[in-house]
Automatic annotation (TrEMBL):
Amidohydrolase-related domain span: 83-285
Signal sequence residues: none
Organism of derivation: Friedmanniomyces simplex
Name of this protein: Amidohydrolase-related domain-containing protein
GO molecular function, one term: hydrolase activity, acting on carbon-nitrogen (but not peptide) bonds
Gene3D superfamilies reported for this sequence: Metal-dependent hydrolases (3.20.20.140)
Superkingdom as given in the UniProt entry: Eukaryota
Length: 298
């Protein structure tokens, strides 16, 4: 559980047994309390009417019905909610803190890091308050923000970040109006937008994301909607480049998530071993069948 006594981490809830506490339970610690719910969804097993959890510090210690609580637990501080459930995941999010979708706003977010962090802080709290205890960030400043959450400087969900989004030069991750030397300079100073051309550069940029602490690798297998000059229908990166990045990520037990709109990019990504298709706007039956065959998800 992170920051809120009302929402538990889904991964924690899945492993918690639903059981009746014993009457000889030891006296609870001072930081222990109960959360009662009209409906408790434990994440494993059936929903429980008039359910209750016992929270000790940052851990869920007991799960059951209010009637099953021991005498010791009955004296704990309590709060009541209508529904209690494990925390949710948002599997595609960005912490970039742009005030509008425009290249100059993106430049500002990459150059004024203190301002970007300050703008992201309330977003982290809003996510947690909305019930999201884990998020998968597919390019942004999530790695640094997660460090702040872990150390207690900010309140927010657990962040699993790709660090950057990677495309070929002129692709979706390239800031087209920006002179190339400027963009290259940004790439060398922590920008969440990276380009690579050819297999050697693709391997290196994947390794740079791993060096930064990325938990997943994000590439562009097709053009985008928000970028100025590329077409979302067109495939980006060659089949060989995609496969090289998939293999490189796999060596460090990471998967590739591919930004894909057009079918050509979707098919190329799936055939190369990409495990998640982000967007999939022009997904058709053939692509869906291949997704099932390759054990990938949308």
């Amino acid at each position: 559980m992170r920051g809120s006594p009302f929402v538990g981490d889904a991964s924690t809830a899945d492993t918690l047994p639903v059981r009746t506490p014993y009457l000889h339970e030891e006296e609870p610690k001072k930081d222990t309390f109960c959360v009662e719910a009209d409906l408790l969804i434990p994440g494993k097993g059936d929903p429980i009417k008039n359910g209750c959890i016992v929270v000790e510090g940052s851990k869920i210690k007991e799960v059951g019905t209010s009637a099953q609580l021991t005498k010791a637990y009955s004296h704990l501080p309590k709060c009541h909610v209508k529904v209690l459930m494990p925390g949710m995941w948002d599997c595609h999010i960005h912490f970039i803190a742009v005030q509008r979708v425009a290249w100059d706003a993106i430049l500002e977010s990459t150059q004024k890091m203190a301002l970007t962090g300050a703008r992201c802080a309330p977003d982290l709290a809003r996510l947690l308050d909305a019930g999201f205890t884990s998020v998968r960030e597919m390019a942004g400043f999530g790695i640094q923000l997660d460090q702040a959450v872990e150390e207690g400087s900010l309140v927010g969900p657990k962040i699993y970040s790709s660090n950057s989004i990677i495309s070929p030069t002129g692709g979706h991750a390239d800031l087209h109006p920006v002179p190339k030397p400027w963009f290259d300079d940004l790439c060398h100073h922590g920008s969440p937008f990276q380009t690579a051309d050819g297999i050697p550069e693709c391997l290196k940029v994947v390794r740079m994301q791993l060096r930064a602490g990325a938990k997943v690798i994000k590439i562009c297998a097709s053009g985008g909607v928000g970028s100025e000059l590329d077409n979302p229908i067109d495939q980006q990166f060659s089949d060989e480049e995609i496969k090289a990045m998939v293999d490189e990520a796999a060596r460090s037990q990471r998967i590739i998530g591919a930004h894909c709109h057009g079918k050509a990019g979707i098919m190329a990504a799936l055939n190369a071993g990409v495990k998640t298709i982000e967007h999939g706007s022009y997904l058709d039956e053939e692509a869906a069948d291949l997704m099932i065959e390759k054990d990938a998800i949308l």
